[in-house]
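Example with several molecule types.
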Amino acid sequence: MAKTIGQEFVKGLWEEIPPFRLVLGLCPTLAVTKSVENGIGMGLATTFVLVCANLLVSILSGIIPSKIRIACFIIIIATFVTVVELMMQAYAYQLFQNLGIFIPLIVVNCIVLGRAEAFASKNKVIPSFADGLGIGVGFTLSLTAISAVRECLGNGTLLGYSVFGPAFEPFSFMVEAPGAFICLGLLLCIMNIIGQK
Amino acid sequence: MREMVKMVIVLTVLSSLSGGLLAALKNNTQDRIDSQVLKFVKGPAIEKILEGATNDPVNDRFSLKVEGEEEERNFFVGVYDGTPRAVAFETRASGYGGDMGVMVAFNVKTDKIMGVSVTTHNETPGVGATVETNTDFKKQFAGLPADADPNVKKDGGSINAMSGATITSRAVCKAVRRATDLYQQLQSKIKDQVKTFTG
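Resulting structure tokens for the full complex:
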């Protein structure tokens, strides 16, 4: 049964929300969520790439021979990632400094290739757009949630503003990689509890 | 056969379109990116160590060729009360988390270090990364003569290492030593160039 455009968008926000439900794109999730600013920046960059790649893949899906489709998808994705990288360097340099190597690594983010292969290549332009936007917004929300917990506990701040006051001793374990795993696990646990009801 | 030709054509067209688009974008953003790097990476470091300069050291710069290096190095000039007195440049050394950039300023009248500041680093947050804000550690370099050989106390030098971050402290010392070496090597050329800048 075909879903409506709205359903294609909404599924990315809970039912198939990355990285919790799709369990894809864990590398940037764990690496850049040290602060909310980085989390949102990474989420938006990925969303832009997802939407553009999904659009172009669904437009070109009739022309691309199936044997070399993955190579073509990668070219399309890599092009948009480089666009994001250059624009970020030119207009948001500090964000670029914080995200560093993880911007070029969006190319190999499984969410982007996964959506191009599993959805955009088989669907029309408008549903593909809705799908890319939904998954992208979902990814941004996840990163924001994880980074909010980590920044709050690990640094005592939220978006750079102090939350607990100067007496708070930062739980610096949370801004290291193992803290990211634990935070991801706990949030997934909460999601499952909510989902069971 | 027809299928193969189609594959080649699709890939070629797609790659060249992508290449062309990116080349155009790169050309259009290059100047802006260069100025962003100067503003956000080198600028703050230069301003910190050339505090009180009456000119804009980021704009007043010259470049010199260093023997054995392909690219020319940038030197930033600080003018105080109408006389160009200071020169700052960046050297690199390997810290705990890889490459680290350190901006070192020299007073060309007294041949002494005026200050050091870290530009780029990848040190552990909360430990080595505190080098960014730890002024007590960096103050130790100010006033050292250009022929000094700064080293941490553990290695027989006179610099107090940052607690828990000996490797980072060592890297800063090493970068400063590279800077003093370079300064001594290029002293006359640097002084000639600095003279040409006036407030």
